[in-house]
Amino acid sequence: MGNISKNFSFSEFEHSDTAIREGIENTIPSAEVGDAIRRLTINVLQPLRDSLAALLIVESGYRCRKLNEMVGGVETSQHRKGEASDIRSPFFLPLDIARRIVSLKLPFDQLILYPTFVHVSHKRKGRQRGQILYNRRYAGEKI
Ligand SMILES: [Zn+2]
Questions:
Q1: CA of 66 to the centre of ligand 1 (A)
Q2: Tell me: the pLDDT tens digits for 58-116?
Q3: C-alpha span between 17 and 143 (Å, rounded)
Q4: What 3 state SS string does 61-122 have?
């Protein structure tokens, strides 16, 4: 499927260490999921990457049903639709990444701060809710 933007490729959204370990084939299943990933990247991830000017790692992108179950995700997870990704950077705290998304006014649907990464989603269709949530294990500063 190849590149989506200057710094992101579809394979990053399919990659999962858990999937590899468990022998799960986590490939983008449809044009709709591919389109959702593309929109998330073009509208949120690439502009964020450009602003930070630093490596941004997709920890978890698309999740097939099996992988999602394996990592304890709910079936309604936006990861299932390609609308969400968990991102981190070796150079920025999750709080800094989240603050940058907000200050750039990027069109996110949900932003969830975790201790080591940020979950960010962008709906393929419909209004972006702009919700900011904190995982129960997140003990850092709020936005
Ligand atoms: Zn997530």
A1: 15
A2: 999 999 999 999 999 999 999 999 999 999 999 999 999 999 999 999 999 999 999 99
A3: 30
A4: CCCCHHHHHHCCCCCCCHHHHCCEEEEEECCECHHHHHHHHHHCCCCCCEEEECCCCEEEEC
Tens of pLDDT, residue by residue over 20-35, are 999 999 999 999 999 9
Q: How far is the CA of 2 from the centre of ligand 1 (A)?
A: 23
Give the pLDDT confidence score for residue 44 in this predicted structure.
Answer: 98
- Which strand (E) or helix (H) includes residue 39? helix 31-40
Cα of 108 vs centre of ligand 1, distance in Å, is 13
Judged against a pLDDT cut of 80, whether residue 1 lies above it is answered with: no
Cα distance between residue 109 and residue 95, in whole Å: 17
Domains of the chain listed by start with CATH number: 10-134 (3.30.1380.10)
Rounded to whole angstroms, the Cα distance separating 115 from 117 reads 6
Amino acid at 72: G
